[in-house]
Amino acid sequence: MTVTPTALSPNLFKRGLAQGKKQPGLWLSLESPHVTEVLAGAGYDWLLLDMEHTCLDTSQVADHLRAAKGGTAELVVRIPWNEPVIVKRLLDAGVRSIMVPFVQGADEARRAVAATRYPPHGIRGVSGNMRANGFSRIKDYGQRYHEEQCIIVQIESPTAVAAIAEIGAVDGVDGIFVGPNDLAANMGLYGQPGAPEVRAVIAELHQAIRATGKAPGILNFNPAEARDLLKLGYDFIAAGSDLSILARRSEALLAELSA
Fold first, then answer.
1. Nearest 5°: phi and psi at 155?
2. 53 in catalytic set
């Protein structure tokens, strides 16, 4: 029997970011709660539910939260855009870890954080009875909710790279995540995240991010390269996706059978 919580549970992923713990994760693009349930128990520290490049809408996210419950992984939701209306709906549904794409500067980072906070610290609308507060059973939700919120902003352009010090200084940002594919595209190298110019920027970015006191993160689906990036200094990394595992492993299996 599922029991509605009466207290906030600790966000271990957020704590790990603050402690500099190495935390591998996976990307979720298949829009399947069943897949989320399988992968939530695989031992990873976090899963990224992608709303930017999928057809997921807010009404479906709660099913993924339920599917991830009981696993090892914190469910992080990447919103489609830095837009406060979708943020408040996701927060009320129980999302507490959010990734915000294409943050270009400190003002945009502040707006992202403000969307997650109640007044006077932000602009989040107040609902007294919702899934996030256990349907009013978590009595101190309004005072403590932000303690377990984890806000990650994405750096995806040279403009954002140049503004890392200012972005990292924004209170409420817990991590800064490098998007190699968009970074490459915005450097004029679409489809070439492994280009020497992009690699050179990535090799230095973790130091600039860490200097702000925030946790540096990145995406790389090549296991050897992902391992090297963790050794280099990135703390949390998306090392694969449900979609890529299904596509590439199914192809590899067929090749093995045909050998």
1. -105, 115
2. yes
